[in-house]
């Protein structure tokens, strides 16, 4: 499995956990984790865009 798909899956997983979290603190934590993985995905895709072509 490629890194981008792993980042995307983890972001989706944390969003689902946030949606089902019982308390606001957990909900916020899971949303922050989802945002973190979305940011990693964007950074990864940006870095690949700037790699020299072979």
Task: Write structural notes for this entry.
- By secondary structure, the chain is an all-alpha fold.
- The protein has one domain (3-49).
- Helices cover 81% and strands 0% of the residues.
- The radius of gyration is 14 Å and the shape is elongated.
- The two termini are 22 Å apart.
How much is the radius of gyration in Å?
14 Å
Structural category? mainly alpha
Number of strands: 0
Give the number of helices.
2
Helix fraction bin: over 70%
Could you tell me how far the N terminus lies from the C terminus, measured between alpha carbons in angstroms? Answer: 22 Å
Shape: elongated
In total, how many domains does the architecture comprise? Answer: 1
Order of helices and strands: HH
pLDDT below 50 for ≥5 consecutive residues: which ranges?
none
* Major sheet attributes: none
- Average pLDDT, rounded to a whole number, is 92
Task: Work out the strand percent.
Answer: under 5%
Tell me the layout of helices and strands.
Elements: H1 3-20, H2 24-49
Features of the shown structure:
54 residues; mainly alpha; 2 helices; 81% helix
Report a brief summary of the structure.
By secondary structure, the protein is an all-alpha fold. 81% of the residues lie in helices and 0% in strands. It has one domain (3-49).
